[in-house]
């Protein structure tokens, strides 16, 4: 995997030693686990963890939130062969993506991250340094490199890893838990979109799907510099925490969610929760460099924000440095669709109006990626 | 598995339809998952979920806690072949045990449960009704029966299942997340034990290990009524939430943890976190019916509370109906052990004083249970 691009956060150099304490709640009985835990804990250094009162070595972590705040909680599974492949994805990218998925859910609610928890099951050989040519880099074990990627993103977003669980298992399974805080009653929900609202997305769409397509074509070959850059949106997506906080603090959005399964699928979900329909103006879609229109419409794992706001509300072109594109409008749910399970989303293009069916991002199930598993 | 005892909670009859809404945060992209989710959500009925403001269908659940409270969070993996076997454990017991592990961690902190989250990965055949002779009972799918067990315990302890994740995977992986609340600064930690404190445990020890031994000997045969009763501590352990709350509210304990990996291992951990040693009086140990002394000392998954309190403090013989036994005392960590990784725990018996080495509960790794995996 060495020809693949480095984690941009790690490549920039950690500003200080890993600052987050890694605690493990509950099970840490086996000697191998204990040794591994000691190793992980040895990476921890002192940091002022304002939200984490008890992090290491107890049955639970204890977190504090501020007066007037509510707690947002999300859990996301990342499964070998489903969300990543050990022979395709660098361990740093798998760690990064694991945490990014959870942070993106907090971003969608407009919540600030308080703490992350990681339950991780790994084959024992991935915990050993220098074993397995695919996981070797500077003598580090696969799991060390996984934590490198995860903790670098954690540091960049100032979220302590406050606990979790660790176990041996034949395949890699990671369950990331994010605990965040939002002002009481101010968390952005999927259910608030109203007819007449404008529809927005942050960043660009389809970049992750295009990157996965390129990764698939590589089959381990060294990518050109141009291709390597194109892999970053897939390998190292950036959760839109600052943008979510910006929107929530101003009460700017009527509804919001993150784009984890593709615009067609996720917009249909937002419409379903809000009881509305939607029209998308194809020419306004911010298609990522190298991505096709299909990938922008249906590709998953972009982790951009999809949100709605009153049409008359003036929003900046960028929020916290990330472009915001107005891509359509919320409409009443047509009476002809009352029997339909999903509200119809219409795609308006030069060719006319067509129904945008939610195709659904199938991760590795629909592609050829699972063949090698 | 039908000859095995029923879940005692389910056997008593649910007092009402399953009351807890099941939401899934984040990923629910695939059609099979969507159908399954709709099925799970259809089981939900209206309940006054005071702590859960947003539970279903959004990127995160939103929880409220009371003023002056801190949040306790724990995550615990339950892995097929490691913590349970599909051909040995009834699905209801696997669901029950999955949730019990998390609740027990909250009990150890003296925290009240606020909400549970379940990330569950299952082979697709376990989601189909009537498929697979081992998972059939009343035409229910394995996953339905798993939720029966988990939700019955959730209802008994009044904890809503407020979210999670669901995915297909070749093996069953469950990660339970419990969010609880404790009065600020009042959560019971492992680190507060002081020389001179008395050591206590709730309930009886070794019952789960004895039950597992009986389950192993059964190999699918129908147990006698007496044997079936002996399996309950293993299949349906009861987390000590009420006892933990009782201790925390009174500030009665100087340190506490739950016994998930056996007294020898867990007491060594408590001593390590507190920087102390311990002496156990063997004759005072509450050995569970059918269990051996070895099982009481080293067997895991009893989910009883281990706690310390000042020797002069008078504690009742029962807390919320569960017996409390005084089993020894905390001592200074001997100078001869300063180099040792673990503080020494001494077992005092008629034969004299011996070091109680932490043997560690190895789940299925040390037994013959994994042979069939």
Any key phrases for this structure?
homodimer, 373 residues, alpha+beta, 4-stranded mixed sheet, 9 helices, 14 strands, globular, disordered C terminus
Largest binding interface between chains:
A-B, 74 and 74 residues
Q: How far do the termini of chain A sit from each other?
A: 17 Å
Q: H/E order of the elements of chain A?
A: HHEEEHEHEEEHHHEHEHEEEEE
Q: Count the helices of chain A. How many?
A: 9
Give the overall shape of chain A: globular
Structural class of chain A: alpha+beta
Estimate the helix proportion of chain A, in percent: 25-40%
Strand portion of chain A? 15-25%
Mean pLDDT of chain A: 83
By oligomeric state, this entry counts as homodimer
Radius of gyration of chain A (CA) equals 21 Å
Number of DSSP-assigned strands of chain A: 14
The unreliable regions of chain A are 12-30, 44-48, 131-136, 365-373
Description:
The first copy, chain A, is α+β, with helices and mostly antiparallel strands and 373 residues long. Chain A is built from nine helices and 14 strands. In chain A, β13 (345-349) and β14 form a beta hairpin. In chain A, α5 (207-218) packs across α6 (225-235). The longest helix of chain A has 19 residues, at 91-109. The first copy, chain A, is globular, with a radius of gyration of 21 Å. At the A-B interface, β2, β3, α3, β4 and β5 of A face β2, β3, α3, β4 and β5 of B.
């Amino acid at each position: 995997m060495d020809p693949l691009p480095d984690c941009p956060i790690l490549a920039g150099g950690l500003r200080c030693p890993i600052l987050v304490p890694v605690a493990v709640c509950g099970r840490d009985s086996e000697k191998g686990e204990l040794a591994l835990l000691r190793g992980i804990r040895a990476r921890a250094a002192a940091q002022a963890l304002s939200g984490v009162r008890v992090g290491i070595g107890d049955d639970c972590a204890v977190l504090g939130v501020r007066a007037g705040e509510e707690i947002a909680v999300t859990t996301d599974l990342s499964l070998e062969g489903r969300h990543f492949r050990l022979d395709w994805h660098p361990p740093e990218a798998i760690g990064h993506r694991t945490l990014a998925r959870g942070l993106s859910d907090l971003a969608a609610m407009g919540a600030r991250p308080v703490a992350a928890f990681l339950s991780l099951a790994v084959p024992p050989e991935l915990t050993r340094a220098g074993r397995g040519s695919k996981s070797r880099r500077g003598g580090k074990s696969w799991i060390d490199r996984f934590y490198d990627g995860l903790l670098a993103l954690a540091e960049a977003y100032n979220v302590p890893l406050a606990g979790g669980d660790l176990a041996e298992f034949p395949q890699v399974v990671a369950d990331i838990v994010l605990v965040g805080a939002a002002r009481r009653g101010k968390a952005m929900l999927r259910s608030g979109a109203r007819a007449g609202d404008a529809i927005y997305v942050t960043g660009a769409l389809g970049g992750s799907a295009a990157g996965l397509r390129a990764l698939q074509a590589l089959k381990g070959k060294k990518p050109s510099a141009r291709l390597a850059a194109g892999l970053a949106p897939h390998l190292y997506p950036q959760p839109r925490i600052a943008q979510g906080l910006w929107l929530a603090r101003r009460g700017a959005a009527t509804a919001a969610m993150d784009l984890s399964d593709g615009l067609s699928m996720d917009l249909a979900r937002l419409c379903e929760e809000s009881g509305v329909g939607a029209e998308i103006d194809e020419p306004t879609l911010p298609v990522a460099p190298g991505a096709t229109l299909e990938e922008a419409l249906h590709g998953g794992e972009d982790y951009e924000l999809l949100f709605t706001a009153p049409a008359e509300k003036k929003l900046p072109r960028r929020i916290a440095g990330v472009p915001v594109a107005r891509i359509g409008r919320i409409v009443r749910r047509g009476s002809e669709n009352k029997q339909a399970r999903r509200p119809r989303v219409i795609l308006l293009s030069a060719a006319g109006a067509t129904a945008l069916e939610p195709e659904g991002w199938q991760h590795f199930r629909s592609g050829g990626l699972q063949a090698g598993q």
